[in-house]
């Protein structure tokens, strides 16, 4: 169907504008216009480059262009929410083009954390027709005293890149704010713009205002689909037919990668961690005889340096950028003609996003090359390639809103205007992730916001929110309100240390970037390391800065913990298991990988897709147990922690373990060949053992800190004083210990457990896996290690210890000292 | 610290998991609880309890769990039960602020008062609690001499042989096996000792911080508090924050 067939939909001015540019409105754009006319909530699913953003704005532009001149100043008509500041600013620029070319009298302005104070004040007094902003700024808006009045004319809220926002805490906060806006402006339409996903209904349910009693809340949101676009062309790069046994850096293939870069106009090189980014960047420059402009982009670099790279890219000055997930989303760069994925992609959906960064034109296929770093990764890359060809995606679980985020929102509501408890409960349940919120939980959250929610009720006189004479809840005083506004947001960034040049005589020089606290723990002063594309020598660390000097000619100490922060998706893992079990397909693999699989078949076994292979063998003075669940590093670590506890009780004397994305190995003093594996891997492992281990673990402390910051127990910022992340870290650990002993069922400990179980240790996945392998363990009893076991055993000694090792480290250090003293 | 220096400062692990050594010639035990035990005088010394720190924050709008005082007190009761001291010395900053005593829950105040049964309580005062407690039993003191030792809240600058002090909340950071451990610690060169904070919510200041500069004759030994023992750590093993 063409635009001409539906002349009524587009006003003449718009029709002419499309025609003037040699375009016709696409079907999905017209469908979105129709949804606007029908006043329907809508979710648009379309690949990158399909005019998606314009489709989202068209209904608003049409409505705004047709409305009569107002007698009184009007409020915001359309609110656009983007996960990235840069995107909001970029869309503002792009939106101004059609507005100007059609001569529309519409104002559109962005507002982000970087927007100047004067502009912010003006926006408050004289709102633009279209306001482009971020979820955090929206939360701030909602905590204004005048929020209700400011948004009463709102007709539409557009959430861009909704697929990346909804399954996280930022999304929870956004959903609550959308529900709030809907109360202020009952006619407001909710519009989501999404990349292609496995299950659009999941996002429709998230976006939908429908209550829990409706048959399927997804029905309340109209689904509009863009054209699928051509499938991307994906190749797997095998360097000279050889693939290393283990490793994560793909160093062996760098020369080929460099050649590929030379043959393309602009390449984006995605890696999974900052370390890999730094490493690949170094390696490519070693080979860069042609002096190609190759740049580096990751989250630790100073903001100005990242912006420099981005603008050079936009101008077409660069031939390649090595980057991490910081560039998964973002502004259009037009000229990228190749995406290279170094090391395994880990998930099909993320990979499609990344590939979508190449060739932002709908009618041409994007082009991508996968570079596996080891043999298992070859299988994974192959599986990802198949998934992309089948247009299949990773599935996400439904989202249940976090209670720490709700606590922040409740406080925000009280700061904005007095609220009625029941009315707010009803409002909150019109936010998708909180649709099934229990009254008891809601009550508990409000009590937490007010008094901290402690069983020992000593803080009644310090209530942050109080009931007024009308029975409404309101903030205690202006100071409490101000402090809340300074701490809005659901992004918890880890404590960071600045990397700075050391000046002469201990002075502090230019900032090169910042890194998370843990980054430098492996290094001693005097060590060299790579960062921001250079080699540096660590001179010393002060409370907030790591001081470095350039050491360009030194061999950098390599960060030894590699791997990916993303776990391989369940969907890809299943594909890898299937591929491995079909010897007919092995011939499509590189020769050495095919040989490796064949020898594994001879010497040990190859499991069916339903089975889990378990090998036991002696090595040195130790006995090894290796399993291959393919469930990702996180789930394997959790499993290993729990198994070690069990093996300890079985008195086989487990000594250590190592995991990667595909396998897990445990070694012990005594043989494990004759254990009852079905009962060892029984699902009851996730009961008391898990609880006991988790409560002691540093992951719980980290999760608790996040929850405490979001819920407002700990403040990130206080008026007049900037608290460094480091101070916060230390005190939250103390608070966690005390609270755990005195009130283990406290709201924040509950939320922290949920977070740790889902985000940090992937309990759900371990549970699914134990269920899957129940009765399906294929035991291979061996005299020595198998070909499959080689990669995982090569990782031994590269792992960082986790869990309860802290006291052990202290004791070892002390013994060294005592031994020295007595010698 | 080299082996020679260590031998001179000779210390030993005591059966209770503490570290025994002589400070300015006077025998002491650094207990893994963070309390200092003087066996000859049967004196137990604790520093920087910061009672009611939680409620001090709550009054300003940060509703920290109100369990810190009970937690600190329970640890202290466990220590007095284990050592049955004749004298219990609070080495200053026992209360987080001047009004903290009034915020004590009645039951908690009774438990603190009960510590005085059958023994002497001495409250050395600190910068957070200059006036000392008003209603609770015990004697007030600015400083206190015990044999060759002098006990006071805030360590004095320069060499102070025999000084036992608190105030700085020393902690040590050790990097081992690719991960860092940060613990409260005693800091001592055999001539003086600075006690770790005993309070549940008291933060720590790394002993490599410049606040400690000039206090020790040689790089000090850190006695870090572990789960069930105290761990002596040499200066060279420790990192800054």
In a nutshell, what does this entry contain?
The complex is a heterodimer of chains A (about 800) and B (about 240). Helices cover about 40% and strands about 15% of the residues of chain A.
Could you explain how this protein is built, in words?
The complex is a heterodimer of chains A (823) and B (241). With 823 residues, chain A is α/β, with parallel strands linked by helices. In chain A, 41% of the residues lie in helices and 16% in strands. Chain A contains 30 helices and 27 strands. In chain A, strands 3-4-2-5-6-1-7 form a seven-stranded parallel β-sheet, with helices on both faces. Chain A has a six-stranded parallel β-sheet with strand order 8-13-12-9-11-10, sandwiched between helices. In chain A, helix 9 (169-184) runs parallel beside helix 16, helix 15 crosses helix 20 and helix 16 packs across helix 18. The radius of gyration of chain A is 28 Å and the shape is globular. Chain B is an alpha/beta fold. Chain B is built from five helices and 18 strands. Chain B has helices at 3-8, 53-59, 68-83, 100-103, 106-114; strands spanning 11-13, 19-23, 26-30, 36-38, 43-46, 87-91, 120-124, 139-141, 143-146, 149-152, 163-165, 170-176, 179-188, 193-194, 205-206, 221-225, 230-233, 238-239. In chain B, strands 9, 10, 11, 12, 13, 14, 15, 16, 17 and 18 form a ten-stranded mixed β-sheet that branches. Chain B has an eight-stranded mixed β-sheet with strand order 1-2-3-4-5-6-7-8, covered by helices on one side. In chain B, strand 1 and strand 2 (19-23) form a beta hairpin. The radius of gyration of chain B is 17 Å and the shape is globular. Mean pLDDT of chain B is 89; it is low at 1-7. Chains A and B meet through helix 19, helix 26 and helix 30 of A and helix 1, helix 2, helix 3, strand 12 and strand 13 of B.
């Amino acid at each position: 169907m063409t635009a001409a067939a539906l002349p009524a939909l587009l006003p003449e001015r718009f029709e002419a504008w499309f025609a003037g540019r040699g375009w016709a409105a696409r079907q999905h754009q017209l469908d979105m216009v129709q949804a606007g006319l029908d006043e329907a909530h809508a979710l648009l699913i379309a690949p990158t480059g399909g005019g998606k953003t314009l489709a989202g704005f068209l209904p608003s532009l049409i409505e705004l262009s047709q409305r009569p001149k107002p007698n009184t100043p009007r409020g915001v008509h359309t609110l656009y929410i983007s996960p990235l500041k840069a995107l909001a600013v970029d869309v503002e620029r792009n939106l101004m083009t059609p507005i100007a070319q059609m001569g529309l009298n519409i104002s559109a302005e962005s507002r982000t954390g970087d927007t100047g104070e004067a502009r912010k004040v003006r926006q408050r007094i004289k709102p633009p027709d279209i306001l482009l902003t971020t979820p955090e700024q929206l939360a701030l808006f909602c905590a204004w005293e005048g929020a209700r009045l400011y948004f009463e004319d709102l007709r539409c809220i557009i959430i861009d890149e909704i697929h990346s926002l909804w399954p996280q805490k930022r999304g929870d906060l956004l959903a609550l704010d959308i529900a709030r806006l809907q109360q202020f402006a009952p006619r407001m339409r909710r519009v989501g713009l999404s990349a292609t996903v496995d299950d659009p209904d999941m996002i429709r349910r998230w976006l939908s205002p429908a209550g829990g009693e409706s048959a399927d809340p997804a029905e309340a949101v109209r689904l509009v689909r863009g054209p699928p676009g051509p499938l991307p062309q994906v190749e797997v790069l095998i360097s000279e037919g050889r693939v290393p046994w283990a490793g994560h850096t793909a160093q062996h293939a760098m020369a080929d990668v460099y050649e590929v870069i030379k043959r393309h106009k602009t390449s984006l090189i995605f890696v999974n961690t900052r370390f890999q980014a730094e490493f690949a960047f170094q390696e490519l420059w070693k080979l860069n005889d042609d002096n190609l402009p190759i740049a580096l982009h990751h989250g630790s670099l100073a903001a100005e340096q990242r912006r420099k790279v981005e603008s050079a890219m936009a101008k077409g000055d660069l031939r390649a950028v090595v980057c991490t997930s910081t560039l998964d989303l973002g502004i259009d760069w037009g000229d990228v003609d190749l995406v290279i994925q170094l090391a395994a992609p880990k998930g099909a959906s993320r990979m499609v996003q990344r590939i979508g960064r190449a060739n932002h034109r709908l009618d041409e296929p994007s082009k991508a090359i996968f570079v596996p770093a080891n043999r298992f990764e070859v299988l994974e890359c192959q599986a990802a390639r198949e998934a992309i060809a089948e247009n299949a995606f990773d599935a996400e679980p439904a989202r249940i809103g976090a209670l720490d985020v709700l606590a922040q929102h409740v406080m925000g509501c009280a700061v904005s205007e007095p609220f009625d408890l029941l009315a707010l409960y009803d409002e909150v349940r019109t936010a998708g992730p909180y649709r099934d919120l229990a009254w008891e939980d809601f009550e508990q959250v409000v009590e937490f916001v007010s008094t901290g929610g402690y069983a020992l009720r000593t803080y009644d006189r310090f209530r942050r929110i109080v009931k007024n004479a009308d029975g409404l809840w309101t903030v205690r005083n202006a100071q409490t309100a101000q402090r809340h506004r300074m701490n809005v947001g659901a992004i918890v960034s880890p404590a960071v240390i600045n990397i700075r040049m050391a000046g002469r005589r201990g002075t502090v020089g230019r900032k090169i970037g910042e890194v998370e606290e843990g980054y430098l723990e492996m290094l001693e002063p005097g060590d060299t390391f790579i960062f921001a594309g250079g080699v540096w020598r660590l001179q010393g660390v002060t409370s907030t800065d790591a001081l470095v000097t350039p050491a360009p000619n030194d061999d950098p100490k390599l960060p030894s913990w590699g791997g990916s922060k993303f776990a391989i998706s369940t969907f890809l893992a299943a594909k890898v298991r299937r591929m491995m079990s079909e010897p007919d397909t092995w011939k499509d693999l590189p020769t050495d990988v095919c040989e490796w699989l064949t020898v594994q078949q001879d010497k040990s076994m190859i499991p069916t897709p339903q089975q889990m292979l378990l090998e036991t063998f002696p090595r040195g003075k130790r006995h090894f147990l290796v399993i291959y669940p393919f469930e990702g590093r996180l789930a394997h670590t959790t499993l290993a922690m729990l198994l070690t506890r069990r093996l300890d009780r079985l008195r086989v004397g487990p000594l250590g373990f190592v995991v990667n994305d595909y396998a897990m190995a445990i070694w012990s003093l005594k043989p494990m060949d004759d254990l009852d594996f079905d009962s060892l891997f029984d699902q009851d492992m996730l009961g008391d053992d898990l609880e006991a281990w988790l409560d002691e673990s540093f992951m719980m402390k980290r999760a608790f800190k996040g929850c405490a910051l979001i819920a407002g127990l700990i403040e990130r910022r206080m008026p007049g004083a900037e608290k460094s992340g480091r101070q916060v870290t230390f005190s939250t650990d103390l608070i966690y210990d005390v609270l755990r002993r005195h009130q283990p069922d406290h709201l924040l400990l509950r939320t922290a457990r949920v977070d740790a179980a889902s985000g940090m240790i992937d309990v759900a996945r371990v549970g699914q896996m134990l269920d899957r392998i129940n009765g399906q363990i294929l035991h291979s009893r061996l005299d020595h290690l198998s070909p499959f076991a080689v990669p995982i055993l090569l990782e031994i000694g590269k792992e960082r210890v986790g869990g309860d090792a802290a006291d052990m480290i202290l004791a070892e250090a002390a013994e060294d000292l005592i031994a020295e003293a007595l010698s | 610290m080299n082996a020679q220096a260590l031998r001179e400062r000779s210390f030993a692990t005591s059966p209770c998991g503490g570290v025994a050594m002589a400070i300015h010639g006077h025998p002491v035990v650094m207990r893994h609880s963070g309390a200092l035990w003087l066996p000859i005088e049967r004196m137990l010394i604790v520093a920087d309890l910061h009672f009611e720190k939680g409620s001090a924050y709550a009054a300003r709008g940060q509703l920290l769990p109100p369990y810190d005082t009970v937690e600190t007190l329970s640890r202290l009761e466990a220590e007095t039960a284990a050592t049955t001291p004749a004298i219990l010395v609070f080495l200053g900053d026992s209360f987080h602020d001047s009004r903290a005593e009034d915020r004590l829950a009645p039951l908690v105040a009774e438990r603190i008062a009960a510590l005085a049964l059958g023994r002497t309580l001495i409250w050395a005062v600190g910068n957070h609690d200059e006036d000392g407690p008003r209603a609770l039993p015990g004697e007030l003191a600015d400083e206190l001499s015990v044999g060759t030792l002098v006990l006071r809240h805030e360590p004095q600058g320069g060499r102070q042989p025999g000084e036992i002090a608190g105030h700085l909340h020393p902690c040590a950071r050790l990097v081992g096996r690719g991960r860092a451990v940060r613990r409260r610690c005693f800091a001592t060169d055999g001539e003086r000792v600075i006690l770790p904070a005993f309070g549940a919510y008291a933060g720590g200041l790394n002993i490599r911080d410049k606040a400690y500069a000039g206090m020790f004759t040689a790089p000090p030994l850190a006695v870090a508090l572990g789960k069930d023992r105290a761990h002596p750590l040499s200066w060279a093993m420790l990192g800054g924050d």
